[in-house]
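User: My collaborator and I are trying to settle a disagreement about how two of our proteins should look. Neither of us wants to argue from intuition anymore, so we agreed to look at predicted structures for both before our next call. Could you fold the first one, then the second, and keep them clearly separated?

Assistant: That sounds like a sensible way to settle it. I'll keep them separate. The first protein:
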Amino acid sequence: MVPSTQHPAAPQSYSRTRQRERRRARHRSAEPAETFARSLKALGFLARNGVQVSARVTDLSTGAELLSVDDYVVMPTASIGKVLLLIEVAARLSDTEFAALTIMDRESNDSVGDSGIWQHLQAPSLPVADLAALIGATSDNLATNVLLRLIGLDSVRRRAESIGLKRTALLDRVRDQRGPDDAPHLSVGSMKEVAWLFSALARGEIVDAATSQRVAGWLSLNADLSMVASAFGMDPLSHRSGDHGIQMFNKTGVDPGVRADAGVVRGPRAGVAYAVAVSFADTDLSTRLAVYDSLHTLGLDLVEYIH
């Protein structure tokens, strides 16, 4: 059992402490290793208690490595792999033969539960661009399967390879249950590659500027700010325009025993791309809460660096 780490109980004392830490963080001589010391401690705590951890943080402007924890390891990334599908869809929207208003019907074979809103709506058909927005906003599983039926998993794989990804892939459609003949995970990835992918999206370098902007726009709708982004203090349902000088887009992934979060966050002082994934035995609540606390701690260090 991994006990949950505790947040300070006194708001006023906590605020004063954070203000002192912010002043120290603003000192330009501070080393990144010092800035992310709390994250290393929190993630190390998880690792010592049997949780597999992988993480990477890079500076958007310089590309400098700010944090690296086993970032070469291929980890299950759950729904983060849907970003690769969104890239292929966004790239095809530049093709005059693949219109943004192409209407797709949902079929019985596409049905799947868990995340997403379309399964709860009456509309049997939606435009391709709307399905992509649903994936960005709610990681919609039904929309994912419908788009995969249109696009094809092989096309998604070829696109991922063409942009240089070797350890990151969308392996399968979304399934309620995975059998012995199915891929063991929806997606996998190395945090080094995933962090690079998000930084390249932010710079407009994935396929072309229009494709990158479409994908970043869809991801900016994401309502799941429960992990790293929980430290940014933003409204989960309305944060596209930014708040208190912070702008972001991200994609999360959740499966049994898997939590992953990757994104880009910019502030007045700097911008970063981050990617983190953890794999653990989700057998008790305290272990899960410890995972979320550690991801929150990483978010706090990101805020200190950018703000």
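The second protein, kept apart from the first:
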Amino acid sequence: MTELWTLIKYLILGLFQGFTEPIPISSSGHIVILKNLFDLEIKGLSFEILVNFGSLIAVLLIFRHDIIRLVKNGVIYITKRDEKAKGDFQFILFLIIATIPTGILGLLFEDIISETLSKPIVVGYTLLLTGAALWVIRNLRGRKNDGDIRVKDALIVGFAQAVALVPGISRSGATIVAAMLVGMKQETALRFSFLLYIPVSLGITMMSFTDIITDPNFDAMAIPYLIAFMASIVASFYALKWFINVMAKGNLKYFAFYCFIVGILVILFI
């Protein structure tokens, strides 16, 4: 019975992580809250790496057509200097530029974030901050399309993603808020945010692969981790498709309300 309850806990963790990763309410913050509620101490980084990789698979599936087009046109521009492909080539460059702040700050402050800031009380306050940011941009309607993005815009969005390394600060929320504040249209902000997630998540997975192999707890926890991994793929896929429709309707204020409510509850009761 104990083993069954453990599997159920990890299933719930995988579903919550997967569902909350694409939407602007902070997956890392919800994992911190759930681990506290379930009294779970997950040692090592294997669990976080696997469930985030599950979310990455979902993002790759949904944005596969954009990815194929960008790669194809990027190669065409490099090899043939076709001006029609220049816009997609520049878009790739801006994604690379926006990835740099996260990589640098992640390496510098990883220990501080994991040891000091991964606490429920911190998550409560950072969820309030996420909610406030979403409330600020709830009615914004930018004018910038993919071809209007500049280096400064990419860096600002990149630094916003770096801030989201702190649990409770939503990655998708931070990047979409930053993208809309620099004037991007909602659909452009959404696409840039999730295509930006791909190199960051891939980089983290590749750099941390040895952590999974050398994790002394991995063999014993392989089945719970696998259940959480599969759950994160399914939950992320459907959550992202739903969020795309929400963005199209401009209903970000409801996520702000949610962050306010959960943040206050965590501060008061956890």
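Some points you might bring to the call about the second protein. DSSP finds twelve helices and no strands in the chain. The CA atoms of residues 115 and 247 lie 34 Å apart.
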